[in-house]
Every structure is written in structure tokens, then in C-alpha cells.
């Protein structure tokens, strides 16, 4: 019976949890159908498991198998590690321990304060695979980033989507190359000194191929805009929580990743005495101690609640960092002038001053978008490296009507200003793939639902989402159109063109300069006058023209290339 106590691998007794079933069979491809028996000695709270009384002898090669629950099936194993025929097919055995890892010398790194690079495997390269992504890792090393954050790779129905419609959390999407390619990718990152953060989704499941409710009460009564939430605190929730904890352990231990980005944790509904986030953080810290390398959990949250990153000794959850949308909104609104929808409160330069000094903008203040007060102050002794900041990311680009990047709005000076605010600020900076050279390709919302009715509903839902933002529904691309996906792929010929190469060098210079500033150094002497925002970190003074121009000639002691001196001035003080 699987547990959070050790690595996962093939088990020929075929354990499966189905607490309400009256009969469960395993179908082993080429070897017939075999009835499972209830496990009688399951620990308290973990009843409802079924398995064969003895391991099945099917030879040394991996077998394909599935479960039939009360006559329904065969369906994939809820803990499947590989789905060669897609999420509706049989599960194939996969042993993650069989990989000959070459990262024995990798000691990991604390990712708070690191420069993170967010990428989507399907659109990062023309081929859209993990192996082809390896070929571009040297570009990231030359850029100077410390870690890659990979959008979800768990198995989903279809050939391409963002990854947030996954239904089998342990299996790596086959169109990306499957689990063996994932191991090669992590190995290659570590060989180049790059940490790996894996984006995981524990708040909902995708709409196609989700057979978990057939097996047992995996879903709870609460829901979000993405559908039913997981059963984290109801009857039988011990096993569901174990399903999540085991998954986190699988990525961190068996697949050697260095951190997890926890998607939309505000959509986790849990009234347990130990919240699932606290349980995940506790497990990660214990595992880090056992493995002898740092492990980092980063939450995506729009709650502006310091409890997420407050230590457990101070009655917090003990996560290591969280995304800070307030920084993004402040940068975006001030540089672009866009103040509709959720940008409405962030258009004044004082919003940038506040986030640089205090981390959150909404820290108990009134949010006009939410039409209520929101957030609470960050603890005074929390370093701002506990907050992940960005001027662009997959959500803030992809959830725009046309999926347009800042390059569609800002000139070169404005892009340079956005880069300086992100990379030289006191936060943990994150870049979105292609941002570093001013990619002109959009990053749009794309899906490949094989079910026509689901594709139609998704397209209609996207148009409805943009009503409150005031965006034109006529420019919303059809997410089911394959061209929407193809348009979103990076164009790797761009970095060699003069205008893009100039911006790329700017990013390299800023990252190199950032390394000379101790990570925990706060922003001081923050102020704004005549459209110029200025702050000091250590002995580095940064001045940014929010219009992207107007600073004039660079000072003699400038620390970076003079290419964008009219937009950003950096001097030693």
C-alpha cells in the first residue's frame, strides 16, 4: 500500500484505494483479469484498499494494466507513473529508481533570492519536448538564471495545453517525452548548475480523464472556478491527503527536483487542524534534512496572507515563499498606463513605492476589484526574498484576451525599465520564457480537448472571463484552434536580431549586477519624483523612468550597459 514513507515503484500486488466498491479487478494486458481482495490490516483512517494476495508473475518487462471498479473500466491507476496511450488508456509500470542519475555532486540551493525562469515545455522549443528543452539550457546559463520553473507536466487529455487540466498527477505527459525524458531534463539542469522547480496543481483536476471519483471520495463538497476541490478534511480524507503528500515526495525525492510551485493555494479548502499546506511544508523540511539538500515550496496565492510563509513555530504554515501579484500589478500599471479591472488600484507610482518598502500593496486596504478590504501586513522581519516578483508570467500574459506580452505595449526603454524593477528589486525575481530578449510571440490560452462539447464550452468560458477586465471579446483566440498553440511557441531566431540581442545583453547585465548585492538587502530611500522611481539596495542606487525615457546621459559610474541609460540609471553610492 503506497505511503509517504518511501519511493514509489512497480508493485505487482496492484494496490488501489476504492473504499466504497464491492468488487475490484485488475486487468493485466495479455494476462487476463484478476479479482483483488480487500486489505484487512490497513492502518486506522486508511481502510478501503484492495490488492492481490501475492505479487503477480508477468515476467521482468513492464506491464500495462488498469482497474475495473464494480464493473466500470478498465481505467488507469490513480497513482500511475506512465500513460503511454493517454489518460484514457492503461497504465504502464515505471520504476523511477531505474534511472542512472548523474547529479550526485548536486548539493541543491535555497531558491529564495534566486533568479527563476518560468517555462512551458510545449512552447519553449519548436519540438515542445523535454529533450529539446535540454538543448536550450545553455542559453539560460549564459543569461545567469539560477533555477527553471516548469509549468505542470502531469498527464492530461489531448496533445497540448497549459498543464493545469492534468488528471494523473504522478505521470509525465507523453507528448513531452514521458517520465524518462523528465529525469534526463532534471539531470541536465543539475549538470549546468540549474535548480528545478516543478509547478504542481493540488486544488482541482481537469475535466477529461478524471476517474478518481469512480475509485473513491477524492473530491470534496467545496468548489472553485476550476471545478470541485479535493477532499482534504471530510470522511476518508486521510488517504486523499496522503495522495497529495506522496505526490510531492515523488517529485522531490524520486525525480530529484529542488522545489515545488503550488498552484492557487487559495482554492484549497481545508479545515483540518494541520492544513495541507503545513503538512506539505513539514514533509519538505524533513525530506530536505534526510536528503541533505535544500527543498523549496513556493505558493501561488492572491490572499496576501503572511501566514503562508510564517514559520510553524509562529503558527504559520512554514512555506518558504509565495508569489506577489501586487508587485506585478504595480509594475504593469505604471509602465503601461493600464488601470482597468484588477489593475485599478495600482496606477499611481506610490503603489510601486509601497510594494518595494512593504511587500504587499493590499495589506488590509480596500480593493476596488474585489469590492472589499483585502490582505494584511507582511511581518516586519520577513525578508522580501520570501516574495516572488515578476513583470510577466504565464498567467498575466496568457490570461489577457490576446495573450499579448509587454512587447506589444512598451518600447525598448519601457521593457528595460520593467527588467530593472524586477531584477534589481528586493524580491525573488522570476522571468517568463522569452522575456529576456523581448519576444514578440504571444502566449495565448490553448487547449486540445478531443471532446467537441468540452472544447466549445472552454472557448465560450474564455470570452465570458474577460467581461470584468473590459477587454474586447472579438480578439480572444479560439483555444481549440491548433494555430493558437503554434503562435505561442518561442521564435529562437529572435535573440540574434540586433534589437532583441541588445535587450538580452541588458538582462544579462542586470542579473550579473544583482549577484553583487546580498540577497537579503532591502530597498531603502524609496521615492518617486517627476516620473522617476528611485531606490537603493546596499551600495547600488537605481533610478527608473516610468515612461521608459527621460533620464538623459548616463552617470560616469554606471554599472550596466549604456544602451538603456535614458530609461534606467544604476550607480554605486
TrEMBL record:
It catalyses: hydrolysis of (1->4)-alpha-D-glucosidic linkage in 4-alpha-D-[(1->4)-alpha-D-glucanosyl]n trehalose to yield trehalose and (1->4)-alpha-D-glucan. Residues 99-462 form the Glycosyl hydrolase family 13 catalytic domain. Its main location: cytoplasm. Its EC number is 3.2.1.141. Gene3D superfamilies: E-set domains of sugar-utilizing enzymes (1.10.10.760), Glycosidases (3.20.20.80), Immunoglobulins (2.60.40.10). InterPro entries: GH, GH13_cat_dom, Ig-like_fold, Ig_E-set, Trehalose_TreZ, Trehalose_TreZ_E-set_sf. NCBIfam families: trehalose_TreZ. Belongs to the glycosyl hydrolase 13 family. This is Malto-oligosyltrehalose trehalohydrolase. It comes from Leifsonia williamsii. The gene is treZ.
Amino acid at each position: 500500500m503506497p505511503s509517504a514513507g518511501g519511493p514509489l515503484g512497480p508493485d505487482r500486488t496492484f494496490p488501489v484505494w476504492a473504499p466504497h466498491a464491492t468488487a475490484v479487478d485488475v486487468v493485466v494486458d495479455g494476462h487476463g483479469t484478476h479479482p483483488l481482495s480487500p486489505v484487512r490490516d490497513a492502518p486506522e483512517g486508511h481502510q478501503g484498499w484492495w490488492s492481490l494476495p501475492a505479487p503477480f508473475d508477468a515476467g521482468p518487462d513492464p506491464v500495462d494494466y488498469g482497474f475495473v471498479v464494480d464493473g466500470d473500466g478498465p481505467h488507469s491507476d490513480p497513482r500511475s507513473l506512465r500513460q503511454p496511450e493517454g489518460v484514457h488508456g492503461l497504465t504502464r509500470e515505471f520504476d523511477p529508481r531505474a534511472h542512472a542519475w548523474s547529479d550526485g555532486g548536486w548539493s541543491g540551493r535555497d531558491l529564495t533570492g534566486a533568479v527563476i525562469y518560468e517555462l512551458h515545455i510545449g512552447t519553449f522549443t519548436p519540438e515542445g519536448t523535454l529533450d529539446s528543452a535540454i538543448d536550450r539550457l545553455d542559453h539560460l546559463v549564459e543569461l545567469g538564471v539560477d533555477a527553471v520553473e516548469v509549468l505542470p507536466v502531469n498527464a492530461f487529455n489531448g496533445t497540448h495545453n497549459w498543464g493545469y487540466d492534468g488528471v494523473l498527477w504522478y505521470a509525465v505527459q507523453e507528448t513531452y517525452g514521458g517520465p524518462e525524458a523528465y529525469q534526463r531534463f532534471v539531470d541536465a539542469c543539475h549538470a549546468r548548475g540549474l535548480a528545478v522547480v516543478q509547478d504542481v496543481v493540488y486544488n482541482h483536476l481537469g475535466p477529461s480523464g478524471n476517474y478518481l471519483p469512480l475509485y473513491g471520495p477524492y473530491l470534496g463538497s467545496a468548489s472553485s472556478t476550476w471545478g470541485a476541490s479535493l477532499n482534504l478534511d471530510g470522511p476518508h480524507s486521510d488517504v486523499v491527503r496522503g495522495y497529495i503528500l506522496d505526490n510531492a515526495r515523488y517529485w522531490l525525492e524520486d525525480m530529484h527536483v529542488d522545489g515545488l510551485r503550488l498552484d492557487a493555494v487559495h482554492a484549497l479548502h481545508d479545515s483540518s487542524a494541520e492544513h495541507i499546506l503545513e503538512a506539505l511544508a513539514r514533509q519538505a523540511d524533513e525530506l530536505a534534512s534526510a536528503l541533505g539538500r535544500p527543498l523549496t515550496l513556493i505558493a501561488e496565492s492572491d490572499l496576501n496572507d503572511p501566514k503562508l510563509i510564517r514559520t510553524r513555530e509562529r503558527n504559520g504554515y512554514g512555506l518558504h515563499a509565495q508569489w506577489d501579484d501586487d508587485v506585478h500589478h504595480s509594475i504593469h500599471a505604471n509602465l503601461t498606463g493600464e488601470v482597468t479591472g484588477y489593475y485599478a488600484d495600482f496606477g499611481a507610482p506610490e503603489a510601486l513605492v509601497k510594494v518595494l518598502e512593504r511587500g504587499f500593496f493590499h495589506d488590509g486596504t480596500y480593493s476596488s476589484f474585489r469590492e472589499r478590504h483585502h490582505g494584511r501586513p507582511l511581518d516586519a522581519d520577513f525578508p522580501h526574498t520570501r516574495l516572488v516578483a515578476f513583470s510577466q508570467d504565464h498567467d498575466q500574459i496568457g490570461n489577457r484576451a490576446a495573450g499579448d506580452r509587454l512587447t506589444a505595449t512598451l518600447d525598448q526603454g519601457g521593457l528595460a525599465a520593467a527588467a530593472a524593477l524586477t531584477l534589481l528589486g528586493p524580491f525573488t525575481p522570476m522571468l517568463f520564457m522569452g522575456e529576456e530578449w523581448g519576444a514578440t510571440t504571444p502566449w495565448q490560452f490553448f487547449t486540445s480537448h478531443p471532446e467537441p462539447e468540452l472544447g466549445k464550452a472552454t472557448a465560450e468560458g474564455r470570452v465570458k472571463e474577460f467581461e470584468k477586465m473590459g477587454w474586447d471579446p472579438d480578439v480572444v483566440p479560439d483555444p481549440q484552434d491548433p494555430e493558437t498553440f503554434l503562435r505561442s511557441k518561442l521564435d529562437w531566431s529572435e535573440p540574434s536580431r540586433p534589437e532583441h540581442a541588445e535587450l538580452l545583453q541588458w538582462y544579462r547585465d542586470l542579473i550579473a549586477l544583482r549577484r553583487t548585492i546580498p540577497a537579503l538587502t532591502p530597498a531603502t530611500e524609496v521615492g518617486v519624483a517627476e516620473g522617476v522611481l528611485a531606490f537603493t539596495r546596499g551600495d547600488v542606487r537605481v533610478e527608473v523612468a516610468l515612461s521608459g525615457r527621460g533620464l538623459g546621459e548616463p552617470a560616469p559610474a554606471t554599472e550596466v550597459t549604456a544602451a538603456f541609460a535614458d530609461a534606467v540609471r544604476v550607480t554605486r553610492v
